[in-house]
Every structure is written in structure tokens, then in C-alpha cells.
Design brief:
This protein is of the alpha+beta class and 85 residues long. Helices cover 46% and strands 18% of the residues. The model has no long low-confidence stretch (mean pLDDT 84).
């Protein structure tokens, strides 16, 4: 049985992957690698899509950085710059 936290984490991960595909000009063959043409996904877009508080999204991205995503920081803002798995 999965916990609510596991379910939320899985849902958040899949939402970010979906936003990534959309940002890369649609769902067809989006690259998972960092690329000069890749378009990042802002933390605010993730929060808006999921309905989660921005702080919770930023904490998730901080924890997922280097494991599931490459995440850039600019002040408080987080941007997913690549999918790692």
C-alpha cells in the first residue's frame, strides 16, 4: 500500500514531466537531456498546475535536484532544466 506522501510525490513528478513535455513544443519526442534549445519549467507553473503551495513545490524540487531533475535556482525561483530519469 502506498502512502499519501508517495502518491503525492508520484503525482507531482508526473505533473512536472508533463509540463516539461509541453514546454518542449508538445509531447512528441521531447528530449530528457539538457539542451541549448530546452525550455525550463518554472516552479510557479508547477504550483499552478498542481494546486500546491509554492513553498512545497520548491522544497520538492530542492530534494529532487540531481536525482529526478536538474534544477536551476535564481534567488527563490526554481526552474527544472532537465529530466534525469
Amino acid at each position: 500500500m502506498t502512502s499519501d506522501l508517495d502518491t503525492t510525490t508520484d503525482d507531482l513528478y508526473e505533473t512536472i514531466r508533463g509540463l516539461w513535455r509541453e514546454a518542449q513544443q508538445g509531447d512528441a519526442a521531447a528530449s530528457d537531456d539538457t539542451d541549448a534549445t530546452a525550455v525550463g519549467v518554472l516552479d510557479t507553473a508547477v504550483a499552478e498546475r498542481t494546486g500546491l503551495e509554492l513553498g512545497a513545490v520548491r522544497e520538492f524540487l530542492d530534494n529532487a535536484d540531481g536525482v529526478k531533475f536538474a534544477v536551476a535556482r535564481d534567488g527563490e525561483t526554481r526552474t527544472v532544466t532537465a529530466l534525469l530519469d
